[in-house]
Amino acid sequence: IIISTTPSFNKKISNKSNKFYYTHHSLGLLTNNYVGNHLKDFDFICVNNQDQFDQLLKLELVDSKKILKERYYDLDLIFNDLKNNNKNKKINKTILIASSFYGNSIIDNLDLSFLKKLSENFYIIFRPHPESIKNESHLNKLKKIENLNLKNLTVSFNDTKSDISKSDLLITDYSGITLSFSYIKKIRSFNLIKNKSDLDVLKKNIQLET
Question: What angle do CA 203, 204, 206 make, to 5 degrees?
Fold first, then answer.
């Protein structure tokens, strides 16, 4: 039995005797181009919420018998009390800026002067997507951000729950972290959308009503 959060790691690369389970690493939808095209090659798919379950039923290649309903990947992220983890803040509010790694992601479009201005009144945690370490342009941008030497800005590759627990507000693009943050903090996050194609990506990743 092989459990994977990587959609391309499935029966196509293994013998047929293995059983492959896919579990998503966020609360976002499973029907985007990076995930949906691979789901047919899994024996079972674990969904994290009702939105994912409903969307999967609309895919012709996914049998309802393959869906394991609402097996959340990290229950502690939702149910632990994270409100008191901010005792050592240097200033009043902390803004988490979390970027995706594709399309018009924040890391590609971020103006460094914006970060400078924001850091005058807020502490900033800038969180790149883990895949950014494989992207040369993203790495170059991260070096520029770090070279700003802003005392109120940190570039973080920590686990998701740690960064969310320290933050008062989230600014992101179409990353699934927007749902995790809102479930925990009980507030809305900001999703920056540059054009219609970005909105289409957001709709594929997140049920907008949710």
Answer: 65
Contact 132, 138 (CB under 8 A): yes
Angle at 178 between CA 94 and CA 7, to 5 degrees: 130
Does this model's pTM top 0.85?
no
What is 105-150 written as a DSSP string? -HHHH--HHHHHHHTTTSEEEEE--GGGGG-HHHHHHHHHHHHT--
Rounded distance between C-alpha atoms, residue 163 and residue 189, angstroms: 14
Contact 164, 175 (CB under 8 A): no
Beginning with the edge strand found earlier in the chain, give each strand of the sheet holding 2-4 in spatial order: 2-4, 20-23, 44-46, 67-68
Cα 124 from Cα 84, distance rounded (Å): 18
φ, ψ of residue 68 to 5 degrees: the values are: -100, 110
Please check whether residue 51 is in contact with residue 57, taking contact to mean a CB–CB distance below 8 angstroms. Answer: no
Helix (H, G, I), strand (E, B) or coil at 190: strand
Q: In the chain, at which residue ranges do the beta strands (DSSP E only) sit? A: 2-4, 20-23, 44-46, 67-68, 94-98, 123-127, 153-155, 169-172, 190-191
pLDDT of residue 144: 94
Taking residue 137's Cβ as centre, other Cβ atoms within 10 Å add up to: 10
Q: Is the predicted pLDDT of residue 141 greater than 90, yes or no?
A: yes
DSSP 8-state assignment for residue 43:
S
Task: State yes or no: pLDDT of 98 exceeds 90.
Answer: yes
